[in-house]
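Hey,
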Amino acid sequence: MQNVSDRHSKDTWTVFKIMGEFVEGFETLRPFWPAVSIFGSARIRSGNPYYNLAVRVASALSKAGYGVITGGGPGVMEAANRGAREGGGRSIGLNIKLPYEQKPNSYAETLINFDYFFARKVMFVKYACGFVGLPGGFGTLDEIFEALTLKQTGKIHEFPVVLMGRDYWQGMIDWLKGQPLEHRMISQRDLRLFQVTDDVDEVVQIIDRHHQQRKRRRGSPKPLRDTP
């Protein structure tokens, strides 16, 4: 049976391991600003319309001068990293170690491996000037709603969250209006925290407009406030 001293020692080393993930993330990603984090399902394959859409939007963002950050795995993540490379931009993958599904894709030129979801999530936000969410499951929803919560509570600078795949997201939007908004758990203003479009050029325009406005307002970019 493990004694208390052994457990405390293990906890201490866990702290250092977590710190190591933050340090590696900060040091590796700092040169890639400005970038856009792109999310979506790991379960789709090449040829799927959403895969193709991810390639197109990532390529367009790369050509506009933005790095592309993904979760580093298959599906939409692979497509976005592929699009970034095809667009001549910086292709970054933040891979999470999982027992299934999540294997690094070959299109991420810069790859960081994480054991801890929370450390990885900070990196998605800290070095991004915008989020693009394509259709996905729990992980995608988690990232999108975390970004919206940070915006809603003022814990992050103003930056766009764009959802692509209007047909896919419409049911969620209807539910937000019919339940949380109807019961006054969110406000009408909260529904303006994100935008929905399937137009690749519009996504680039939205990201670029906000980034340029932010540069004019604040000068040198600081992706997060003092508290991530």
